[in-house]
Input
Amino acid sequence: MGAKLAAYFNQAATIGDFQAKMKLALLTKTTSAKAMEVEDSADNIAIFEAAMKTIKQEFGS
Amino acid sequence: MVFLTSSSIRARLYRGIGGLLVLLAVSSGLGLFMLHNLSSNESTLANKAQPYLADLSTMGVAAKGAANDERGYLMTGDPTFIDEIHAKRDAVVYPALADAAKIYAASSAETKAVNSIVTGYKKWATARDAELKQYSTDHKGAIDLALGSNRDLRKAYEATIDEAVAIADTGVKSSDSSFTSTSASATWVLIGFLAFALLAGVAFALRLARWISARLAKLTAVADRLAVGDVDGLEVEVGGNDELGTLGASMQGVVAAFQELFSSAKSKAA
Output
């Protein structure tokens, strides 16, 4: 439960370190801790994917 | 059209205030309509019933004067009375009746009553003139006529005056009753609409104020905790599709970012 979503935080950290993780939390309105608890639903994954797209553009990955 | 379905605060305000304005416009329109009815009622009284009764009154006084002059002549033989009858009585009676006949429609009961008076008065005036002429040669015969058939003719046209006045009185009473009834209806309808608008306005204002202030209080509480860095377990519990809902969602992002920041800082410190 939430493993996929939590993985996005690791991915963000790889791309832009701590700043990217904060940005992901800001855009998804979810913390990495909470991401572990929520369901890896299609809707949630879509939100994280959109946020990651923004992060990749912003942090140049 | 968007404002009809949107759930934004602005749209709700537009709908609420717009609804109240519509209520006020409807009540004002009804008020104007009823005022128009009252005015129309008053106009009927002022332009028809009152002049009609005034003409009948003028005619009745002049006709009474003619009857008195008739008696005066028969008692004294003074020809001045005859001059008075023609110059001051008949000259007033006929124009007054002509005026009265123009006030209402030709087919109306009022005009028919006036026509009856004209017919009756003419009959009496013709008989009266013949009687006064007879007086110079036959005193007794003229007096007999005055107290007999001519008196009956006078009583007949006087009865038609009474009938015409009764018809006018009925109209005035009906008009007065209609005025009172319309006035009372207008008052209650306006009071009802205004009371409803007032209650609806107060209910709308209270509901909107509660709805906005309760959610603003939640957002303020979140902002207060953010301001002192107390973000542990902090949640923004303000939803909805309006401006405050959007603000709540944005604040939730900020809260999550702060929580992530604090969590990372703690991890590094450990």
Q: What stands out?
A: Chain B has a mean pLDDT of 90.
